[in-house]
Design a protein that fits this description.
Length: 342
């Protein structure tokens, strides 16, 4: 049984990790940290976990994280980079759900995240945890950088086209919408019901922190830099990301067949039949990305629709998927969850 520690167990990704791991056949949560809620029963803060998680929150110092086999950091940016080294030295594997190890260019990371990196030497070792492109590297990794939610939806949507050399790389467009849980579990005026409800807005048009991460991933697939316009939007829903992606074709390809071939055998990417329009509710609570590819009027523009649950395939579910790979478990272990409807 894999002993699991979670640093930062009171946020949305933390409680989602707890939900998924509570039903995992080969993993057991042995420590959950929170400085603010130390001593409180996890199930008292999250009643949905009553009878499933019989632990209290502890401070990081008290948690004996070095006794764990793997530790998930479900913390704000800037925490894992200062705490991962000690755990790695103790033989603990680490999965960081924040952005500390996602961007390989440390100077670029520091520019976008506004702080000095605490362990730049570990950045080169960190494996980017998108299993659909890095599965074998993840299996042998000590340190995994779990992808962001927008980057997961966008990269999975664009990858088949880029890998096939079928689109113009200088003018990719990602028009993305997210539920308010993507902002995290914190008091913030913009996420209040009276502020976000019955409204819809773009944000970060001049530049969003996920932009360099997406460009890095797509550039690796293309073996050259790509030009990407990325515009995120906030929608009045709790969970979900809908990415509408645009690219100009440079080859006359069967787009549907291309996507079906690329993701054949992938447990967590579902290519829908031609003409489909995936909905965010079709992935709610599940670790799956549903994709539909369109070529409107048979022209040279391809439109890809990619939907995920930002807290599952966009965060905690993908982290568990990575853990499964790191420990030689079936990739679907603990993740056979049917999406919630309605």
């Amino acid at each position: 049984m894999i002993k699991v520690g979670i640093v930062g167990g009171t946020g949305y990704t933390g409680v989602e990790l707890l939900r998924l791991l509570a039903g995992h056949p080969s993993a057991r949560v042995t420590a959950v940290t929170s400085r603010k809620e130390a001593g409180m029963k996890v199930a008292d803060l999250f009643p949905s976990l009553r009878g499933r998680i019989d632990l209290a929150f502890s401070t990081p110092d008290e948690a004996r994280l070095q006794d764990c086999d793997v530790v998930f950091f479900a913390t704000p940016n800037g925490i894992a980079m200062n705490e991962a080294r000690e755990l790695l030295a103790a033989g603990v594997r680490v999965v960081d759900l924040a952005a500390d190890y996602r961007i390989q260019d440390v100077a670029e990371w520091e520019k976008w995240y506004g702080m000095s990196h605490g362990s730049p030497d570990l950045v080169a070792e960190a494996v980017y945890g998108l299993p659909e492109i890095n599965r074998e590297a993840i299996r042998g990794a000590r340190l995994v950088a779990n992808p962001g939610c927008y980057p997961t939806a966008v990269q999975l949507g664009f990858l088949p086209l880029i890998e096939a050399g079928a689109v113009e790389l200088s003018s990719l467009i990602a028009d993305c919408k997210s539920g308010v849980s993507g902002a995290g579990r914190k008091a913030e005026v913009g996420a209040l019901l009276a502020e976000a409800g019955d409204s819809f807005k773009a944000y970060g048009v001049a530049g969003h922190r996920h932009l360099p991460e997406i460009r890095q991933g797509l550039g690796r697939a293309a073996a050259q830099p790509v030009g990407l316009t990325f515009v995120p939007h906030l929608t009045p829903m709790i969970r979900g990301i809908h990415a509408t992606l645009y690219a100009r074709l440079t080859a006359d390809v069967d787009v549907q067949a291309l996507f079906e071939r690329r993701y054949e055998g992938e447990a967590f990417v579902d290519v829908l039949p031609a003409g489909s329009h995936p909905e965010t509710r079709s992935v709610r609570g599940a670790n799956v990305c549903r994709i539909a590819a369109h070529r409107p009027q048979g022209g040279d523009t391809v439109v890809v629709l990619s939907v995920i649950d930002n807290l599952v395939k966009g965060a905690a579910g993908q982290a568990v998927q990575n853990m499964n790979l790191m420990f030689g478990l079936p990739e679907q272990a603990g993740l056979g969850i049917v999406p919630l409807l309605p």
